[in-house]
């Protein structure tokens, strides 16, 4: 699920219901998909999330049936919070697409010292704990909510 | 993944579960305990047969309450190729026979919030160990189990006693008003994984329905007793690149059978296209895939195939 955060959303056809969920910044990115759902005459819910509590969202997600597909769109903190609530309710990466508006903040674990580094979109970093050069991989740990950073050997 | 060694076991009890289903309890020769196994596991049994050893796979479970045993349930098939007839007519308490170590190609998902099992007839057997495992771990599950009648419903009393709140029964003779239907898949909450075991038509109907309702493949699990039926099988030639040899696969044989008959030791296990053990690399030619193991992407790549079930559309060049 995390892999796709910067890629364009696409319409996943053939689902029994769609949930569209955005903050005020993310609403627009969902319009083409809502249009597709309407054209396919598929049932959908559209929610612009403002001050809804975690317990409300958890209840909403948990009451969905299998075959429901979720789109999240908005700023990093917003989609991060909703993604975790959706997963807690039972959604898996095969039922969710995410669009991040604005900067992303991901965690990278150093393969040498296991220290955590905060990065945005750069692919090469220097570990702030042990100083080795790291290449940000796409190996994601759900448990650590972080990507693995490999030691990168740069040719001089 | 590929283990030749076997365990000798003694048949310690035979119980008639229905008029066509017998339960066999297998114990270790020295009264020690047999290897433990996870929910959904099976063993391969090796039976003497005029045409050589018969290898048959059976789900293992343990409803006896004693630890360290394997139990299997065998339905006498009308068109038995020898396996079920041998179990029913020849095997006696006290007999010793070789079996494989437990293997599991049908494990329960560790990500599911809820598990739903759909069984028809003897398809109940893998779910006995799966439900025992989930109950022990205090996980949420339910069973939907169809049989001809209450009398023909193997393990009915056991299931009613042990899992009274999770089991739903459907009898086609009219003992119950409800019939098992794929539309029940519409009722399951998000986070559900579904498991199907029964005749090919039942697995097919439920899988198709689940996909049509929007279930991701990741949430759909099934186990076949036999390879998927193929309407029309054609012979096809193969070339083995490494050996520089050509062979013909007749319409009524699988590629795996032809390779084994010609002394080419391809590792294999389930022989129904479900485990991936017999995968071979394809260099050239078009493959018609009949397995349920490779991803759609892998199948479309035309670079690999499971030789127990998949076939060539014309000539294939294999990297063996």
Largest sheet composition of chain A: 5 strands, mixed
| Strand percentage of chain B | 25-35%
Strand order of the largest sheet of chain B: 9-8-7-10-11
Give the proportion of residues in helices of chain A. 10-25%
Give the overall pLDDT of chain B as a whole number. Answer: 92
- The low-pLDDT segments of chain A are none
Task: Report the portion of residues of chain A in β strands.
Answer: 25-35%
Would you give an account of this structure?
The complex is a heterodimer of chains A (156) and B (320). Chain A has helices at 27-39, 54-62, 76-89; strands at residues 17-22, 44-48, 68-74, 96-100, 106-110, 116-119, 124-126, 133-141, 146-151. Chain A is an alpha/beta fold and 156 residues long. In chain A, the strands form two sheets. Chain A has a five-stranded mixed sheet with strand order 6-5-9-8-7, with no helix packed on it. The longest helix of chain A has 14 residues, at 76-89. Chain B has 320 residues and is an alpha/beta fold. Helix content of chain B is 16%, strand content 30%. In chain B, the strands form five sheets. Chain B has a five-stranded parallel sheet with strand order 9-8-7-10-11, with helices on both faces. A five-stranded mixed sheet of chain B has the order 13-12-18-14-16. Chain B has a four-stranded antiparallel sheet with strand order 5-2-1-6. In chain B, helix 2 links the parallel strand 7 and strand 8. Classes of the chains: A alpha/beta (156), B alpha/beta (320). At the A-B interface, loops of A face helix 4 of B.
List the helices and strands and how they pair.
The complex is a heterodimer of chains A (156) and B (320).
Chain A: E1 17-22, H1 27-39, E2 44-48, H2 54-62, E3 68-74, H3 76-89, E4 96-100, E5 106-110, E6 116-119, E7 124-126, E8 133-141, E9 146-151
Parallel strand pairs in A: 1-2, 1-3, 3-4, 5-9
Antiparallel strand pairs in A: 5-6, 7-8, 8-9
Chain B: E1 6-16, E2 21-28, E3 42-47, E4 54-59, E5 70-75, H1 83-89, E6 96-100, E7 114-120, H2 125-136, E8 141-147, H3 156-162, E9 167-171, E10 192-197, H4 200-212, E11 220-223, E12 236-240, E13 245-249, H5 255-261, E14 279-284, E15 287-288, H6 296-301, E16 304-306, E17 311-312, E18 316-318
């Amino acid at each position: 699920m995390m892999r796709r955060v910067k890629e364009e959303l696409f319409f996943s056809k053939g689902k029994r219901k769609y949930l569209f969920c955005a903050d005020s910044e993310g609403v627009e990115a969902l319009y083409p998909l809502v249009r597709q759902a309407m054209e396919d005459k598929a049932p959908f819910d559209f929610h612009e999330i403002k001050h809804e509590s975690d317990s409300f969202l958890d209840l909403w997600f948990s009451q969905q049936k299998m075959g429901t597909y979720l789109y999240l769109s908005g700023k990093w903190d917003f989609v991060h919070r909703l993604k975790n609530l959706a997963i807690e309710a039972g959604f898996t990466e095969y039922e969710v697409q995410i669009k991040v508006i604005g900067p992303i903040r991901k965690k990278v674990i150093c393969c040498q010292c296991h220290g955590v580094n905060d990065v945005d979109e750069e692919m090469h970093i220097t570990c702030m704990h042990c100083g080795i050069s790291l290449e940000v991989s796409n190996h994601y740990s759900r448990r650590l909510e972080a990507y693995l950073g490999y030691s990168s050997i740069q040719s001089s | 993944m590929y283990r030749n060694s076997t365990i000798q076991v003694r048949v310690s009890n035979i119980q008639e579960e229905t008029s066509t289903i017998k339960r066999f309890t297998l114990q270790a020769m020295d009264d020690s305990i047999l290897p433990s196994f996870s929910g959904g596991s099976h063993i391969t049994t090796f039976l003497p047969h005029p045409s050589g050893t018969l290898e048959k796979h059976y789900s293992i479970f343990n409803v006896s309450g004693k630890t360290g045993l394997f139990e299997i349930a065998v339905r006498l098939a009308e068109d038995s190729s020898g396996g079920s007839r041998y179990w029913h007519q020849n095997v006696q308490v006290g007999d010793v026979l070789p079996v494989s170590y437990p293997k599991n190609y049908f494990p329960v998902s560790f990500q599911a919030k809820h598990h739903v099992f759909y069984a028809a007839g003897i398809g109940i057997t893998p779910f006995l160990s799966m439900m025992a495992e989930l109950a022990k771990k205090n996980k949420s599950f339910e069973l939907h189990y169809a049989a001809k009648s209450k009398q023909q419903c193997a393990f009915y009393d056991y299931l009613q006693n042990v899992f009274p709140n999770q089991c739903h029964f459907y009898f086609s003779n009219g003992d119950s008003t409800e019939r098992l239907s794929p539309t029940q898949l519409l009722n399951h909450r998000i986070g559900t994984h579904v498991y199907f075991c029964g005749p090919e038509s039942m697995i097919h109907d439920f899988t198709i329905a689940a996909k049509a309702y929007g279930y991701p493949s990741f949430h759909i699990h099934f186990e076949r007793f036999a390879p998927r039926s193929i309407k029309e099988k054609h012979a096809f030639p193969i070339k083995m690149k490494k050996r520089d040899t050509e062979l013909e696969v007749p319409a009524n044989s699988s590629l795996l059978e032809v390779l084994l008959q010609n002394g080419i030791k391809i590792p294999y296990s389930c022989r129904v296209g479900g485990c991936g053990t017999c995968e071979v690399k394809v260099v050239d030619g078009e493959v018609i895939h009949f397995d349920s193991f490779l991803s759609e992407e892998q199948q479309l790549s035309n670079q690999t195939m499971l030789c127990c079930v998949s076939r060539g559309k014309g000539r294939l060049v294999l990297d063996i």
